[in-house]
Amino acid sequence: MVDKLITGSDDQERCEWCDAAPEFLHYHDTEWGFPVVDDIRLFEKLCLESFQSGLSWRTILNKRENFRAAFAGFDYAKVAQFGAVDRERLMADAGIVRNKSKIDATINNAQRMCELVEAEGSLAAFVWAFEPDPETLSEPQTATTSAASVALSKALKKRGWKFLGHTTVFAFMQAIGLINDHAKGCVIRDRVKQARQAFEPPKR
């Protein structure tokens, strides 16, 4: 299968999907696939991928600032303290996805995050231990899951995390650089590769 590319206004080739909506280009060029180590950003990405389940990424990306405001900037220690009043507030917030199961899962996952950080030192150290060998991966953009995403999903579920199936976790792994899934020929693919080479993952 040949990776699909589009040619941008700068005459550079990019992943075809970034041409699907105007806001995708900046996200594609500056965020998607670049390695992430900050725990709050990692928690945010896990939560947003969870909310995206069954919806379009465009919906979530357009609401991201609203999600950040609603969930205390995804400071997991603060979200872990959310109670009934916060749940009611979130269910009434039209700026986010008002799905009770996903909201409850986010609060639960914040609590599990606190436990994980205490046990492992950081979420970053935990998730980067699941980085797959690039040689074991299929061609870019042809898969929606992998052995590594299944393993990470199972590990999180074992610790009590919710709403994080292996497809959702695979999307998370793509987003934070555990997998470089930019299409071959995409101008950003090499930039992500260079960023990963300069990046030292934390150890558990």
Automatic annotation (TrEMBL):
Q: Name one GO molecular function term.
A: DNA-3-methyladenine glycosylase activity
Q: Which UniProt keywords apply?
A: Metal-binding, Zinc
A Gene Ontology annotation in the biological process aspect, one of them, is: base-excision repair
Reading the lineage from the top rank, the first entry is Bacteria
Output the Pfam families linked to this UniProt entry.
Adenine_glyco
InterPro entries linked: Adenine_glyco (IPR005019), DNA-3mA_glycosylase (IPR052891), DNA_glycosylase (IPR011257)
Entry keyword annotation includes Metal-binding:
yes
Q: Where does Zn(2+) bind?
A: C15, H28, H182, C186
- The protein in question is named DNA-3-methyladenine glycosylase I
Q: Which organism is it from?
A: Sulfitobacter marinus
